[in-house]
């Protein structure tokens, strides 16, 4: 998608602080971090929202979580804990319509989120 911010990051057209990339997944630090660690984990494929997922995407979604787990370990968060969340549509706070997992950690995280 030529007008998608995260597709531009995947393409290298907009700079980002990458922490992981592989054939399917790219991860980079959030520009407006909400915790000491705040990383966004995205598929290279443009998928606007969770509502656009189908069964064929199941391995890809699994890969997003595997990358989240790896980065959490790299950031030293595995024992203390961390949160992985994906917002769907504006009512839940989604502002970039290319699916992304938020990985948050490094401070106490309260529940429920606002
Ligand atoms: P959402 O609100 O869609 O769940 O999350 C979008 C996230 O993307 C926000 O946390 C926001 O700070 C982040 N973001 C927006 N624009 C940029 C950008 O240009 N670079 C990076 N690294 N993060 C961005
Ligand atoms: Zn996109």
Provide keyphrases for this structure:
alpha+beta, HIT family, subunit A, five-stranded antiparallel beta sheet, 2 helices, binds zinc ion
What's a concise summary of this model?
The protein is an alpha+beta fold and about 110 residues long. It has helices spanning about 5-10, 60-75; strands at about 20, 25-30, 35-45, 80-85, 100-105.
Write structural notes for this entry.
The protein is globular. The model has no long low-confidence stretch (mean pLDDT 97). 21% of the residues lie in helices and 22% in strands. The protein has 2 helices and 5 strands; from the N terminus they run αβββαββ. It is of the alpha+beta class and 114 residues long. The protein has a 5-stranded antiparallel sheet, covered by helices on one side. 23% of the residues are buried. The protein has one domain: 2-Layer Sandwich (HIT family, subunit A), CATH 3.30.428. Bound molecules: guanosine-5'-monophosphate (5GP) and zinc ion (ZN). Zinc ion binds next to α1.
Instruction: Figure out the total of helices.
Output: 2
CATH architecture: 2-Layer Sandwich
- Name of the CATH superfamily: HIT-like
In terms of structural class, how would the helical and strand content be classed?
A: alpha+beta
- Overall, the morphology is globular
The portion of residues forming beta strands comes to 15-25%
Q: Strands across the major sheet, in which order? A: 1-2-3-5-4
Helix-residue proportion: 10-25%
Number of domains: 1
- Pick out the low-confidence regions: none
Q: What is the total tally of β strands?
A: 5
The CATH C-level name is: Alpha Beta
Average pLDDT, to the nearest integer? 97
What is the string of SSEs from the N terminus onward? HEEEHEE
Unique ligands: guanosine-5'-monophosphate, zinc ion
CATH topology, which one? HIT family, subunit A
- Straight-line N-to-C gap: 31 Å
- Mind telling me the C-alpha Rg? 14 Å
